[in-house]
Batch of 4 targets.
Target 1
Amino acid sequence: MPEIKPRTIVLRCPVCFARENDVTLFREGEEYYCIKCSFTGTDRDVRAMYTDLRKKYHWILKRVPLEEQRTL
């Protein structure tokens, strides 16, 4: 029977992701480190920045008609 490997969560650098450069993965350790932009942060920092990024893409799956856009 094959061995079941635990799922690993792939996190991307929130600074690079906010700049829409979604290629940079973290080097894991005590803190996360981005090779491209030199961002260093803890897991809590990264999760907080991810929460802020969700606000940017809040309506990405919702269709907003032109009339509704004019009232916004």
Target 2
Amino acid sequence: MKKLEQAPRYQRDDNVKGKKTGEFGCIWKIFKILPKELKVLDIACAEGFLVWLARKGGLKETDGIEIDPDRTERGFKHLNLELQTADIFENLDIIRKYDVFILSRFFHNIGEEKSDELMKRINRKRNYMLIIKYKPGMFKENKQKRQPLATKEGLKTFLDKYELAKKSFPQQVIVAAKGKYVPLLKELRKGIAEG
């Protein structure tokens, strides 16, 4: 299995070890509002913090897939999660089992070509929802411009290709939906302000 060299970036040890949800408060609210029977897959879940959070929010059928075994081991150690250690692109068939896909700061890491490959497979489904967390601001801390798929506008443009209904929420979150899940966007908006 492929081992990643970089340290976890979007899931700080505070989150994983201390189970601190502040950075993901908006996603927590989304999990609390979504129908509990939905089946959720966190793609590139790292230690599985959002899997843990979804389960705490009542979404019992929530799984994660992560390529780095060190991260899935940390998820087991600190969050008591059994996550799938695998490459999503070698396991695209699992997509058919799920209704909701979490993609936290992921698309920009794999680039547009791989993002299209993943979205084309997801978009075969008649009904689905995406919960996407992106990077804050148009510029990195070093003043360099962010890649388009790391930004709100870049992601919205990318998702337009798939004709998805979408809403923006606080804390750099976009929720997109297709088919019977589109009305859920209005339910989420009733409980969570625009971001």
Target 3
Amino acid sequence: MRFGDLATAVVGQQQHEPPAAAHFVLLAGAVVAVLAIFGVRWWRGRRDAAAAAKPRTSADRSAEGTGSTEEE
């Protein structure tokens, strides 16, 4: 057997593809990331809408006015 034939046989037996499960793992990770981003945006929008719809009371205004700024 020649060296060229041996090298061709060895290179021909190597797999150059990742296992099929690797593609599914990457796809599942992308889906989870998209769902997490969508869920956080939805939750924040819902929270902000509820805060905007809530009527402000005098206690809310006084809590905002107790900052650490000094009056001259």
Target 4
Amino acid sequence: MSALPYNAWVDEDKYMLEMARMHKLQPKLDVIDVLREEFDGLKADTNYKPGFIMERRSWLVASLSAQILALSLELTDDLAAVCLAYLETLDRRDTAFIEHLSTFTSKDGHRFYETVSKDVNEAAKAVGFDPESAPSHEIEIVRQKFVEIRDMRDLFWGWYIGYKHGQFATPIVLTFSAPGTEPKQEWGLYLIPRPFRRDAITGKLHTEDRFINTVDNVGAFHKTAVECVSLSIQTRDRQYPKIYGTWT
């Protein structure tokens, strides 16, 4: 634990400072970058990882895209947690950033993005700007970024939860065909209906329109992850000195 002893009594201020120094989101983006490199290689070059052939290769590409989605959505929560924890620390005039961070829930994240995407002053405060002195165009850029992140969460949250925290979103391939055209395949996540809709007369169930093409949206997922990490670094660089002094 860096300068902190493990499983021992320590000075609280030192603990809070050292843990705040060590906290960062960049490593999660580094994992996404590695997954993206594997995804691109497998998708574009049949000689890349030759041990994965034919359908096995396609399933791996789909699963990599789902993992990139999951980590990107995790980072949207991570960014919200960082912004809220710094705000609470400053509001309470304490040094317990890491303690406030540990109480975060996804419900807090949903409320956070609803607020900062609609109110430019709240967006400014969330990343450490002074709403009264910061250039208005810079604050509006931040708000627009929060809007984009909120929209990504709104669109994909159900599949993320189903894939990462349950077994009700599963990778599948859909085949689409129209008269006179070649069949087209799309790979992604299917959200299993909960509950199933059944016809009382025929006994059939409806599969519902609950599919997202994660493979073709990897670029958008990656962009969201990059934005979250960038905003978290900007927030830390503005807020950390207000609490702990000069970054050393």
